[in-house]
Amino acid sequence: MQMVGFEPMTITTMRRDAAKPRTVIVHGRAAGFAQTIAAGRHQLMGDEPADVGGTDTGPTPYDLLLAALGSCTSMTVAMYARRKRWPLEAVTVRLRHTKIHAADCEACETKEGRLDYIEREVDLTGVLSDDQRARLLDIANKCPVHRTLMSEIHVESRLAPSGSPHSVI
């Protein structure tokens, strides 16, 4: 699927081995919260719970964000363990997102107002030494999505041209 009128911003420094950016398309009706999401050949739904006006047909946007971090964490940890030939059998990642007062976060640089707080618990199954487990937790903090969330992020938004044909998922 190609987005008509969408021109990606110019990236002046990109590693030669970097993957070509994919376009994710999200479409929803103005009458509700339900969204159809297309990522490559995959389709999924996003929505809000019924108690906040949604129809609960899919995960919330924050659930999808946590799923991205959790799946990236699990994949990265498992890949590292395979390369090291460590006896890791499975990885389970549990995540929770909340808004907290900055003053309640000792590890945070921001000290005023509210901020987003993500708790991530990594459960490693397998006969691993304490050193291996500690190293895998360190690797979890280096997964690409974690690095993206911790980096400076710039989101450039623009309107599609009026009357332009649009693809519906």
Commentary on this structure:
- The strands form 2 sheets. Strands 1-2-3 form a 3-stranded antiparallel β-sheet, with no helix packed on it. A two-stranded antiparallel sheet has the order 4-5.
- It contains 3 helices and 5 strands.
- The model is unreliable at 1-14 (pLDDT under 50).
- Helices cover 25% and strands 25% of the residues.
- By secondary structure, it is of the alpha+beta class.
- The protein has helices spanning 61-84, 130-140, 144-150; strands at 24-28, 35-39, 42-46, 88-101, 114-126.
- It has a domain at 60-150: K homology (KH) domain (GMP Synthetase, Chain A, domain 3), CATH 3.30.300.
- The radius of gyration is 19 Å and the shape is globular.
